[in-house]
Amino acid sequence: MEITFDQLINLPELKDLKLVSGKKGIFRRVKWVHIMETPDIVSYAQSDEVIILTGVAIFDDKDGFVELIKGLIKKDAAGLIVNVGKYFSKVPDYIKKISDENNFPVFEIPWKISLSEVTKVICNHIVKAYLEELPYENLLKNIISDKVTYEDFTKRLSDSGYTSFKSFRIIIVSMDRFQEYLYSKNIKDEQSIFHMKSSFLRCVNSSIWDAKFQPISFLEDESVVFLMINEKDKLINLEKLLEFIRENGKKNFLDINLSIAVGNAYTRFFEIKTSYLEALKTLKVIKSEGSIDKNMFYSNIGAYKLLSEIKNVTLLKEYYDETVGILEQYDAQNDTDFTHIFYVFIEKNGNYIQTSKKLYLHRNTLMYKINKIQEILKKDLTDTKVKFEFYLGYLIKNFNNF
């Protein structure tokens, strides 16, 4: 897992590090750290590196400081840490202005703090994350594939702060209408798409990151799958966490919408896979209903639970053909929209006023169309049993994309 500033400032060893400007860049990744004092060596800076400045060479050189920060921004550096208290009492306002305009994070750290210690903490954290990244990325995949024993699992995680394993839950965070999003942002080549997906994984990991515990997650298509352990012990408010993940995503990816599917929590290791399959089914429900930017729990998917367990697709298709399929066939032949009208009518429990408002139809026009649908189906649409049969047909249609 790559390190971002929002993770670093939460480290106890860096409690004196203060973000003073460029706050929208707080989720920038940090690959390494260097000390740099003059603008003439900015050309040696690399992307995603954080630069530390004492000010010894430019404390009385406004133009030099401006040239330095603009050079770092052009080089796509991660951010700037200014050692305040001797050469600078604080970061100058003109630097803050440039920082804010470019979402380039600038921090202050007191002169009394050892810069060698700051550098050591940041570098050690980066190296540790790099060494841990691959094993943890594969760990969850292997758990779901039944390739990891409970003994191996506990041994691997005990080195990362976990001392007990009381509950497990899988959550999937998915980018909605991903292909449309790529098209809208003119992202076409495979390398750019891969970079975006990797950045999305880092973004989700940074949202669930804890200084004591390594995130356990992996990327699957346009979704991030992650495992929550001992959520009650950590006093996690799940609803707030999901919203924080969404907000973090929107800060990092302009105009993105995220759907979040949540499996049940279980107490036994082998049930992690069960929670994963539940989250997958829940995500399928969200997408089948055409929803975007939505959180959904497996416990709330209702009749879809039953449908997801029916493996006989032929049987489901036959049921659909005998219900909703009749209307769809009529619509295709007569250029009508009775399938959608009847769905809304059922959804509104047969209430003509609410249905007409939803469809922007006059009540008399709606009554005419419902009567026409009744003629086509040769069913009494006021019968609760009939409405249920057709509602189930709509669910089957949505869930199986018929």
Automatic annotation (TrEMBL):
Q: What positions belong to coiled-coil segments?
A: none
**Purine catabolism PurC-like domain location:** 7-126
- Sequence ranges assigned to domain CdaR GGDEF-like in this UniProt record: 152-285
In Pfam terms, one family for this protein is HTH_30
What's the superkingdom here?
Answer: Bacteria
PucR C-terminal helix-turn-helix domain mapped to chain residues: 343-395
Q: What InterPro entries has UniProt attached to this entry? A: CdaR-like_regulators, CdaR_GGDEF, Homeodomain-like_sf, PucR_C-HTH_dom, PucR_C-HTH_sf, PucR_dom
Similarity field: Belongs to the CdaR family.
What's the name of the protein?
A: Transcriptional regulator, PucR family
The protein's organism comes out as Clostridium carboxidivorans P7
